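Deliverable D5.2: sample structural annotation.
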Amino acid sequence: MNFGASPRSKPGYRSVSSDVPNPAATLHERRLPFTLELAFAVAALAALISIAGYFFYQRGNILWWGDAAAHLNISRRILDSQTPGYEQLGSPWLPVLHVICIPFVLNDRLWTTGLAGTIPVAICFVIGGAFFYLAARETWGSRMAAAIALASLALNPNLLYLSSIPMTETVFFAELAAVLYAVVAFRRKQSMWLVALAGVAMLLATLTRYDGWFLIPFTALALMLPWNTKRSSIVLLLFLAIVSLGPVCWIAYNRYEFGDALWFYTGPYSAKAIYQRALDAGLERYRGDHQWGYAFEYYFTAGLLCTGWLVTGTGAIGAAASIWRYRRALLPIGFLLLVPLFYVWGVYSSGQTMFVPQLWPFSYYNTRYGIAVLPVAAFAVGGLVLAIPPRWRLAAVAIPITSALAWMIPFSPDRWVCWKESQVNSVTRRAWTRSAAGFFRANYHPGDMVLAPFGDLTGILCEASLPLKESIHEGNGDEWLATLGRLDLYHRPKWAIAQEGDELSKAIDLASWKREIYQPVLEIHSKDAPVLMIYRLTNDSSVFHPAAPARKVDTENPDPAVNKAVEIEERG
């Protein structure tokens, strides 16, 4: 459905600048070449992410990020659980990533290696890149400008890493790019199918990251302008009818499952609650907390680390030049800039803590949020290409090439901030996970059952390839509460995994005041981490020495004989 001819389709219409071909004419008159160039872009994106995914898989980096492992385990427990079903989606994390991983995560090899998350996220990278190219082609009307913008985006190693692991940033990017294309194309084509595309993509975005909720009114406004009472009203109704399903369904889910419609915002796993617990534990208040200056400084430092100086700088010049010369550039650049501004607001107001190595406390935390600067900077590079005189434009190819070489020479992933954060913050967790998984591979028998909190400790079961339906955790609701509350009466699992001082370790200590119910059989000591305890159920039919002390493993000890998890000594 179209709302009549747009001004650009009328005879004699002239583009804003004679340097910029009319997009309508370009896309219509060169249909076959355009189809081929899009196919080439898709093929290049697929090849690029395949190489990147294989590289990170070979290095074992896919599940280094604790959140990546947790996302994949949530996806697995939806079907592999004592209580399978949609309630396993949990909260506050939104469900799209967990759902798209389901077709792959039940394969044990894909689950334990993380490839179950790599495959769908890599597909999102290709889809997002294709829509990004279409939006740039529609805006700039130039094949070269669109290609250079896409290359500036796709050759970034931080984005390639995030597109190779089960994290939400690339999934959201695909949805954002689809919305961007629908918005800029609707300005010319006035097709209701593009409104529907924007609505569906934004619906998925609202169920991927909360950034999508923030973008709803701005997207609606972009679709309605220029204002026409009849046309704009129909567009608004169609768009809101589709996109409102996301927030409404999520709020209803939280109300039904947790008894609080805003549980995702106020619950114990929300960003605000995590930040408050850190403050209660004595952490100094984060500098960005209700301080706009620090919020901007920390976020845009992360943005520079994720995007790189060259693409950020040329993108800034391109944005200024294109907005000055071409009015239509303001809409896509302004729209893409909303996401970084949302993060600045989050850092300021809602406890979205972010640490970067250049600023106090000189560490890494949530640096990946800065990747939102990359799409707007890369897109604006296309505007810079058009600002170059036609006979010199080919030289603009040097922008993405030089940027890629700057990331790769000298070759060291330590220079890629998203990879570096995952490496630095996972050293201890990977060490105790590896030791505990080795112990369970040697000692666990099918049907034994494991009692363990869901989260980082679930990574032990993943690495040991133990089905999650043979574990009891918070996601099992009443069964977890009953087991934890009366371990002296209800102790079906033969094994328990806890960290010193957590809820389960305290419950075990409390239940053992009269007689020992779970005996510690392995202690794993790691630097700057609570002691990891593995317990075995004690009863009259035990096959191990009930009085034997727990075996101790020190992950910092270089002696492999000390750290090798062996079978428990059995009687006789």
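Annotation notes: Confidence is low (pLDDT under 50) at residues 3-30, 540-544, 558-572. DSSP finds 26 helices and six strands in the chain.
The annotation will be released with the project's public dataset once the embargo ends.
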